[in-house]
Amino acid sequence: xxxxxxxxxxxxxxxxxxxYLLVALGLSLIFSVGGIVNLAHGAFYALGAxxxxxxxxxxGFGPSVVISPLAVALLGILFERFILRRFYTADPxxxxxxxxxxxxxxxxxxxxxxxxxxxxxxxxxxxRGSVIVGDFLFSRYRLLILGVVALVMVGIWLLLHKTSFGRxxxxxxxxxxxxxxxxIRLQPHMTAVVMLGVGLAALGGAFFAPITTVHPAMxxxxxxxxxxxxxxxxxxxxxxxxxxxxxxGVVRGIAIHFEPAAGEASIYILMFVVLLVRPRGLLGExxxxxx
Amino acid sequence: xxxYPRRTLLRAGAAFAGAAALGFPAIVRAxxxxxxxxxxxxxxxxxxxxxxxxxxxxxxxxxxxxxSGGILGKQIDLLSEDSxxxxxxxxxxxxxxxxxxxxxxxxxxSSASSLTIMQVAERNKKVFFSTGxxxxxxxxxxxxxxSFHCDIPNTVMVNAVGTALEQKGMVKGKKFxxxxxxxxxxxxxxxxxxxxxxxxxxxxxxxxxxxxxxxDFSPYLLKVRQAKPDVVCCNLAGNQVTNLVKQYAEFGFxxxxxxxxxxxxxxxxxxxxxxxGTWPTVWYHTLAxxxxxxxxxxxxxxxxxxxxxxxWIDYVTLKLLAEAINTxxxxxxxxxxxxxxxxxxxxxxxxxxxxxxxxxxQLVQEAYPFTVKPKDQMKDQWDMLVLGDVVPxxxxxxxxxxxxxxxxPCEMKA
Lengths: 291, 414
Prior knowledge:
Chain A: This is Branched-chain amino acid ABC transporter permease. The complex is a heterodimer. Chain A is mainly α.
């Protein structure tokens, strides 16, 4: 019986990891390609949630959860063109300051538009409750999230590994100078990467809006975990981030099963151990520009 | 491209993310020849949502007092800041008293921060009204002469809800599973709950201590299901409550969810359709009382939304403080304490007047259990709660629901 309970926590951790993945993957992509630690990433997550709540009251949940990330991805174009683009080759402290400042501006903007008090929305009736598969209990809604995450990940993997766009992006991670020498401009690709990254964060926000507190500072809540996932997974590796996100979810679940008080600390211990053994992260590649 | 070590960059990133978590207080500067009053409340973090309401309430009270001539003929200068965490709260409290010349402090929701401000107040011999902290320990073993407690303590919340549950046959012989906020407030609330369970033949079959920054409750909910309780009881605080309520609705467990602590702000944040069960409250904006309704009208007019219970408590506290200063014609700590210890009565917008109990400085007042309105009966998004019968009942003395001297002894050093 104990073992089944533990297994249930492991499976639940995988589901939760899928949601971390949405936010962490974009963070990792933007960092890998542009060399920018996007501290404003959480703001796009929050925007995704707020726009989704706002639209849900008019259009219902289904359309909102699609439109919201698309709208945020469009914002991502402006973000890349007018802000990030100036900092790819600048001292990294500048991009840290700028994205940090932007995160604050975004949080205050949300406060001005939607107020300091949280806004709320509900899960659609058909996704309420839980289903029992074998001995495991799943929230229907989280199964839906898991399905969406899986689809999105397959799509992104195909995009990165089976298209010419993906080849340029992957080459840009390793040797941007070589890409340039071949006469390929990385910047339009970077715009797309940022759109994709912030859009994914917004998708996470939109899906989590019905089951978490939607408040102006919610972006800061998710950033720490997203960072931990990126550090554990290692840079430049799609699978590194995927594995790290799932691992973080599972380790937290197991820790809460055995020693609840250590639940939140466990993911930092995991990061500590991984960095001791593999300073580049689990599947991090050696990237010349970061060495 | 400039070369830079990856780990330096990540370290800097993590440092920034950490700094972001600390938040950025809105600093209101003091002005000369006014009576300064320091107000601290969490505007960020898991209590930030309800703290924002508290700030609005205190500001409205200051404006109204100033419009009607101020205190002792002077205008109030309210310095209201984000208390952030217990250590920062103490530093800011010290600065307000020492450098800004505040004559009295009020505010706070976190019992942990309130405790540190209480110590600062005692050291500086200035009065502090802890408006929103509910831990029994603050009134008991940590009490001091300079600190006054306005919100209902944990024991009262447990008694209010417990009595309502008992009438529904949900206590005797039932198996309870509690989820508890892992800081002084939660520990204290769990203690009060255990006393209640013990006295009413209920069994506590499981408890989980949950860190205040947890946003995902699914692993804990799985443990709840494994324990198969009769009733799940929430001893959480702030955003934790909202997250739990939403995720409990998501999983759709058959065990009823009740709670010994809820602020209306957290209920509103959870939204209609997610919240159910029986909970306690100190005040709600639909309360039929002329003083309360005048406050609700003024607040709604100014801010475009009805006040939350923390807006109310900070509002009435500043009002009763102004009344005390005007009556004693003094801002001297000793005179104010003597005045309150005479158990002066104040109209706080409830059926019965309230007073600070002399031996532990608790504002003795009525409390209410509430249940949740069906969604189709709500007039607007704020009309969520149905207040139950006031506790204690009209014929019983107010103090019957408060801990006695023996239960929660307080020794105030002179």
